[in-house]
Write a structure and sequence with these properties.
By secondary structure, the protein is mainly α. The chain has a single domain, classed as Glycerol uptake facilitator protein (Up-down Bundle). Helices cover 67% and strands 0% of the residues. The protein is built from eleven helices and no strands. Helix 3 runs antiparallel to helix 8 and helix 6 runs parallel beside helix 9. The longest helix has 26 residues.
Length: 256
């Protein structure tokens, strides 16, 4: 969120030299897409990103919860952290970028439906979320290219911001939209960004699971090829162990 607010101010505030030099909307969105894609890569492949799995997004976490790859208690903690992180990022950006961040052209990097309306914005968010989760599941569950999951996700971010942002503002993330909306006191079509991204990602997971099978989905981490502890794999191992005990011959339910 600090990155989103900072680059929004640099590229869209009228007093910014960058905004004055680059007046074309597509060019600005391209630079914004590059900035946010690079931010995603840095975070995903950072030591903290390798440790946590680098979700950043409640829709991603809820999708892996639905797939049975996350302990429900961990999922609740992740979602709480994602919202808290988003709010904290906008708060720090507001303190550091005032008064630029409140200018109407920047508006706390708020995400709003475009001129084509709320329905188009919802469908656009749904489709982008579907595509992003499909990319993540496909790459992360293909062993020879799994380490490039973060690159694939970042490429999606770049393309979506560059070409789709005029339709919906390109959120894909309820926590990201909520943080900006709270700072801007602008709740326009908030329901779009709370429903479309989870719906799109859950639909993508359902399709992937139907085509590839449940066993094809290994872990909830975006970057798993590292030596750091994985709570997702630990959860799956514990669940499989309980299932083996539960269905072992001669074991009564009261003994599990």
């Amino acid at each position: 969120m600090i990155s989103a607010c900072t680059f929004s101010a640099l590229l869209f505030h009228p007093a910014s030299p960058a905004a004055g030099a680059i007046t074309d909307g597509l060019a600005r969105r391209t630079l914004m897409g590059i900035a946010m894609a690079l931010t995603a890569i840095v975070l995903i492949y950072s030591p903290w990103g390798q440790q946590s799995g680098a979700h950043f997004n409640p829709a991603v976490t809820l999708t892996f919860l639905r797939l049975g790859k996350i302990d429900p208690r961990d999922a609740a903690g992740y979602v709480a952290a994602q919202f808290l992180g988003g709010l904290s990022g906008v708060f720090l950006a507001t303190r550091g970028l005032a008064p630029w961040i409140g200018h109407p052209e920047v508006n706390f990097a708020v995400t709003l439906p475009g001129l084509r309306g709320v329905e188009v914005a919802w469908m656009a968010e749904f489709i982008l979320a579907f595509l992003l989760m499909t990319v993540v599941l496909t790459i992360s569950n293909t062993p020879r290219i799994a380490r490039f999951t973060g690159i694939g996700a970042a490429a999606c971010v770049f393309l979506f911001i560059t070409f789709e942002a005029p339709l919906s503002g390109m959120s894909l993330n309820p926590a990201r939209t909520f943080a900006s909306a709270l700072a801007a006191r602008n709740w326009t079509a908030l329901w779009v960004y709370f429903t479309a991204p989870p719906a799109g990602m859950l639909a993508a997971a359902a399709v992937f699971r139907r085509i590839q099978g449940a066993d094809a989905i290994s872990c909830a981490k975006l970057h798993h090829q590292n030596p750091r502890r994985c709570i997702f794999c630990e959860f799956q191992a514990a669940k499989e162990s309980r299932n083996r005990v539960r269905f072992a011959p001669g074991v009564r339910p009261s003994e599990v």
